[in-house]
Amino acid sequence: MNDKIYENMLLRRRFCKRVALMAIAFTISFYVSILLFGDLKAPRVMNLTDLNRCPACYGVSVCPELYSNQVIIEGHTWSSMFNAKNIFYGYTKSNRRVVLKKLAHNSEFKDFDSKMCKTFNLKRNCRPIHLLNVTNVDEKLIKLVEYNFTWPDTEPRKGLVLCPYAYSLYDLVLPVLDSKKPQLDMINIWTMLSLNPEPIILQILPKSSGWPVPAYGGVCGRLEVVADEGEPLSSLTQVAWYRKLKFAKKILDAAMDFTFKHDRFRFYLMDWSLDNIVANEKDDITFVDLEDLIVLDKHISPGKDLPNWYQRYGRELIGPGFTFSIENMCKHHLSDHNLWAACYILAGDDDPYLYPIPKEVNSSRPHFDRLLNECLNGVDRFKTITTLQHVIGDMLMDEKIVGYGAVVR
Ligand SMILES: Nc1ncnc2c1ncn2[C@@H]1O[C@H](COP(=O)(O)OP(=O)(O)O)[C@@H](O)[C@H]1O
Ligand SMILES: [Mg+2]
């Protein structure tokens, strides 16, 4: 009798074991096949582009490449599910690394879509395609630019400020226009100005002309493709001080370029942070986040509303840290905003990138620290920066400085 019970128990246990093994095998094969062939492997291009929202999208220039699988997107839905920033990474068939950016958070898209019909006085349930028949896109564009300039403090400001006069917009966006489809272009431009002007800026300031911005691949629906330009400086804090100095020189050069290099416009960057500057293996730096920007037209004829236009505007002590007056920057033909901001991330109060300065540098070149402070608090930043550029240039040639390792904070 006992033998029988024992045998039954054994059989039951064996059965349970088999079921458990089968369940485990099934689960493993399920996940392996999903990882290999299923949607978990990579977010599908189709799901990222939102092409059905065009023409309320950024354009279609890179769609042929994306839809013929010439760009492979990495990562699986676990990360993309939590990818609030909407940034994806991939590589091209020729093995160039690219970054795919939706350029807005999902909630911003929702908000934009829910206001679209009302903005153009269309029926409440209008579809993006209906925008092709509206006649007042130009007017809406100018209104949007004017709003961003005079925005009330209570409302969140979105995107580009173009000043002092909104009509400069027509000249600004010339490099983005395609003469064959003016209405479509205007709706795309309106969408980018409403959500994120980055693709416009990357075409006005091409990397191929030496601007320290990502190489622009193009746009498809609501997705932008740019070259992966490296790692953010915020994760390169433990590198040799010499390397930091190299980056610092390039950051100062960029601040001057954004202020002076373009024939017609100045570009004041509003989001200076070590997260938004990346460096590649050649130690070139790139400003990757061009969402928040003031573009100033240097060539306007100032009206009575701009009595101080020809004076320079120097940053005043308006408050601690990163505060600035958009209004004042827009009332003067030249401001030192970029120069101050560059010095602030290198030497300001908030985790300054160049500090601590190695002791040996401080004792052999005490004026270096003094110059950085003068850039933060002095009166003539234009003069100080030029001196700083020379001093750093000299330091970079000094073999002793090349040898300094990382200084741990
Ligand atoms: N072209 C690029 N090359 C390398 N990294 C990039 C590039 N564009 C964005 N990134 C990375 O993605 C992060 C977020 O992108 P960003 O444009 O700054 O979006 P957000 O508006 O969310 O700050 C950046 O801090 C940077 O680390
Ligand atoms: Mg950023």
TrEMBL record:
Family: Belongs to the DIPK family.
Transmembrane feature ranges: 20-38
Recorded GO CC terms: extracellular region
Segments forming domain FAM69 protein-kinase: 190-377
Chief location: secreted
Keyword entries, A-Z: Membrane, Secreted, Signal, Transmembrane, Transmembrane helix
Source organism, top-level taxon: Eukaryota
Protein name, entry field: Deleted in autism protein 1 homolog
Keyword Transmembrane helix part of the UniProt annotation: yes
A Pfam family per the record: PIP49_C
Protein's cellular compartments: Secreted
Record's keyword annotation contains Cell division: no
